[in-house]
Amino acid sequence: GDSVTQMEGPVTLSEEAFLTINCTYTATGYPSLFWYVQYPGEGLQLLLKATKADDKGSNKGFEATYRKETTSFHLEKGSVQVSDSAVYFCALSDRSGNTGKLIFGQGTTLQVKP
Amino acid sequence: NAGVTQTPKFQVLKTGQSMTLQCAQDMNHEYMSWYRQDPGMGLRLIHYSVGAGITDQGEVPNGYNVSRSTTEDFPLRLLSAAPSQTSVYFCASSYRDSRGANVLTFGAGSRLTVL
Q1: Which among A83, B39, B77, B115 is most buried, taking Cβ atoms within 10 Å?
Q2: What is the pLDDT of residue B39?
Q3: A 92-111 residues with CB below 8 A of B?
Q4: Residues in chain B within 8 Å Cβ distance of A106
């Protein structure tokens, strides 16, 4: 079945460092891909998405490119801030979009130190 | 807009008790779903609904029941609570955007402890 694999955390960075969180997926067809972020004590919020190969999703300085050839959707940010400390989830849904379901990776905790 | 509202935020149950987690959305979304979040396991789908009167099982449905009598509400029932159901539960509603992607909006979560 479809699945998502993320790099294990926690990832600890100093402020202004470059961030990469790896995400790879296994899916039939052409899924849509997402990054969600969960701040402490809160629900998940959509960070960015991409719906076809070579699409780049971006938001709040974060970017991810849909790479079909490597089945990857790595999250990057050029300069992280303390306020970016959160848990980041990679997810996919099938392109039919007929069910409203997402399949999530296990999440990667990011800690940014001042 | 309130978005997705879940109640209660916290609940402690004894083994064997039953309870209902409430979920309501005010965005007129077709799709609603329930996930549980456990350390190191991401979010796993319990049940989902593609519209009023239609529900289906997700990855981990055992011990849970759902119904969808209205577009707005999607309660999750624990029939006989077990310690393995200790978790954080998230309700989500979603729609398909113009490119066919499911866009989910999550509630703030309900933390359940079963003793």
Answers
A1: B77
A2: 85
A3: 93, 95-107
A4: 40-42
Residues of chain A numbered 45-74 and touching chain B (CB < 8 Å):
45-46, 49, 51-52
Residue B42 pLDDT level (bands cut at 50, 70, 90): confident
With b meaning 16 or more CB within 10 Å and e meaning fewer, what string describes B54-93? ebeebebbeebebebeebbebbbebeebeeebbbebbbbb
CB-defined contacts A:B, below 8 A: 80
**Paired tokens of B45:** 């789908």
* Number of other residues whose CB lies within 10 A of the CB of residue A3: 12
Q: List Cβ neighbours of B97 (8 Å cut-off, separation of 6 or more).
A: B103
Dist. CA A17–CA A24, nearest whole Å: 23
